[in-house]
Amino acid sequence: MTTLPLVFDAPKRALPPRHLADLAPGERRAAVSELGLPGFRADQLARHYFGRLTADVDVMTDLPAAAREQLGALLPPLVTPVVEQACDDGATRKTLWRGHDGTRAESVLMGYPDRATVCVSSQAGCGMACPFCATGQGGLQRNLSTAEIVEQVRQAAAAARDGALGEPTRLSNVVFMGMGEPLANYQRVVAAVRRITEPAPSGLGISARGVTVSTVGLVPAIDKLAAEGLAVTLAVSLHTPDDELRDTLVPVNNRWKVSEVLAAARRYAQATGRRVSIEYALIRDVNDHPWRADLLGKLLRQQVGTKRVHVNLIPLNPTPGSEWDASPRHVQEEFVAGVRAAGVACTVRDTRGREIAAACGQLAASEA
């Protein structure tokens, strides 16, 4: 099996123009002053963008017309929808975005009875080279800017509010599980999380408890995130408990082994008080064996602690032409039982969007 080399540093490609969402509150006032306007205009602009979820200066009628024209420089268009698809009776909506330089990224808005969730991308492509992932096989194009990430969330929040999922609802959850390895774009992802969780007008006001940041296991970055004081949920894409197979399924395992990743997960849970989610894509005849369920439960109990961890099984959404396939239902149920036998919580993720290529990277690959 051929895998791509790991890429931790994105290619040197120009990020989009400076945007309001790239800036912390103090920086916004400085940027507005550079335009020759009083600093309080920054708060008015932020109130529209983060509070009213609009980036159209023409509707900001509490601002003088001349000021609106100038302030538009801080709201440049960043991501344009290329393809939008819906399924699950409108409860799942996937968008393929085009950046200023033609790079593409995806987000998925999902409605549930008790919440609305958006899954966002943090990079255009991905350098982690996991062979069962369409994004990983496409390679990394570049990091997304803070504002490009926030824009995915703002537009999803506006769509949910305006009834895109059926009934108007409030966006409550954001998961960094789209294209890219979030912790390989660390500074911009952390800044985006701050914009997402800070109360309006500083940010979108989504609870940190509703935000999940995933990683394939970049151990130093996990420890760094634990010290940020953000208390978001950490999701570790483990996919198998044994190093021999994980070296192939998740090539970053060649740098940080399972035991090191789980130790970092334990430290994160201890520092933040948040239970860590272990993501496990169940692949037929590859990682779905009963002994792996037993080993997974044992390792998590011993190395992380049953109260600090939860296993999230993901039925694989296979990519077209792939050799990988989802495990049968009875195998899935046996795997769940094996993990639970160790006293570790284990549930199966609700599978959405198979008919609209909603697995990470599928839509971008199909439109390439």
UniProtKB/TrEMBL annotation:
Q: Which GO terms describe its molecular function?
A: 4 iron, 4 sulfur cluster binding; metal ion binding; rRNA (adenine(2503)-C2-)-methyltransferase activity; rRNA binding; tRNA (adenine(37)-C2)-methyltransferase activity; tRNA binding
> What protein family is recorded?
Belongs to the radical SAM superfamily. RlmN family.
Q: Which UniProt keywords apply?
A: 4Fe-4S, Cytoplasm, Disulfide bond, Iron, Iron-sulfur, Metal-binding, Methyltransferase, rRNA processing, S-adenosyl-L-methionine, Transferase, tRNA processing
What is the free-text note on the cofactor?
A: Binds 1 [4Fe-4S] cluster. The cluster is coordinated with 3 cysteines and an exchangeable S-adenosyl-L-methionine.
Instruction: Enumerate the Pfam families for this protein.
Output: Radical_SAM
Taxonomic lineage is: Bacteria, Bacillati, Actinomycetota, Actinomycetes, Pseudonocardiales
PROSITE patterns, per this entry? RADICAL_SAM
The UniProt record's further free-text remark is: Reaction proceeds by a ping-pong mechanism involving intermediate methylation of a conserved cysteine residue.
Can you name this protein? Probable dual-specificity RNA methyltransferase RlmN
What catalytic activity does the UniProt entry give for this protein?
A: adenosine(37) in tRNA + 2 reduced [2Fe-2S]-[ferredoxin] + 2 S-adenosyl-L-methionine = 2-methyladenosine(37) in tRNA + 5'-deoxyadenosine + L-methionine + 2 oxidized [2Fe-2S]-[ferredoxin] + S-adenosyl-L-homocysteine; adenosine(2503) in 23S rRNA + 2 reduced [2Fe-2S]-[ferredoxin] + 2 S-adenosyl-L-methionine = 2-methyladenosine(2503) in 23S rRNA + 5'-deoxyadenosine + L-methionine + 2 oxidized [2Fe-2S]-[ferredoxin] + S-adenosyl-L-homocysteine
| SUPFAM superfamilies linked | Radical SAM enzymes (SSF102114)
Main subcellular location: cytoplasm
